[in-house]
Amino acid sequence: MDPASQDINLNSPNKGLVVDQSDSLSDVPVEGAVGNSANPLPPGLTEEEAEELRTELTKVEEEINTLRQVLSAKERHATDLKRKLGLSPLNELRQNLTKSWQDVQTSNAYLSASATLDDITHSEAYKKTQETLSQAGQKTSAALTTVGTAITRRLGDMRNSATFKSFEDKMGNLKYKVVGPRGNGDVVSSPTDTTPTQENPPF
C-alpha cells in the first residue's frame, strides 16, 4: 500500500483506506500552474525540479495539517484527563505563578538585587536618613500635639469669657422666642390649638 495514496485525515471516515487516484483532476488547469506565464520558473530551476518541489511542498503541508489535528486531539484528551483529576485552569495558573516566583527568587538578577538592597540598608547614609526622618516625624508629632492643646485651651478660655457668655445668652433668648418652651424636649400645646399633637410626626 503506497503511503501517498492513503487518506491521512484523522477525522475522515476513510482513515487508512486506499484512495483511488484514477479520477484525479490533473488535467484541469490551475491558476499559477507551470504552464501559466504569470508565474514563471525561477532562474536555474528546471520543470522537473519545480514539479518535485511542488510535490514535496504538498506532502509537507499535508503532514502539517495532520500534525495539527493530532495535536488538537491530544490537547482535548489532556484537558479531559485534567478535568477528571480535578485540575482546573485556576489551579494550573496558581502552580505556574508559584513556580515562576520560585524561579525569580533563585535567579541571579534577583539575588544580585537583593544583595544590593541589603548593602544599601546597612550603609551609613541609609541609617542617617532613617534617623533624620524618624526625628522629624517625632518633632512634627510633638508640634501638632502642642498646637492641638493650645487650640483646646484657647477655645475653653473663649467659652468662659464674658463676651461669649453674653452671646450664648442672646442665642438662648432667640431660641426661646423662635421655638418656645418646648426647645428642650417639652411639648406644650397652644390654648388655641385643637388638633392633638403627634409625638413622632411623619416628616
Automatic annotation (TrEMBL):
Name used for this protein in its record: Tpd52 like 2b
InterPro entries: TPD52
Source organism superkingdom: Eukaryota
Lineage: Eukaryota, Metazoa, Chordata, Craniata, Vertebrata
Gene Ontology CC annotations of this record: cytoplasm
Family membership noted in the UniProt record: Belongs to the TPD52 family.
Bias (Polar residues) ranges: 1-14, 187-203
Sorted UniProt keywords: Coiled coil
Coiled-coil stretches noted in the UniProt entry, renumbered to this chain: 50-84
Region feature (Disordered): 1-45, 180-203
The keyword Glycosyltransferase belongs to this UniProt entry's keyword annotation: no
One Pfam family matching this protein: TPD52
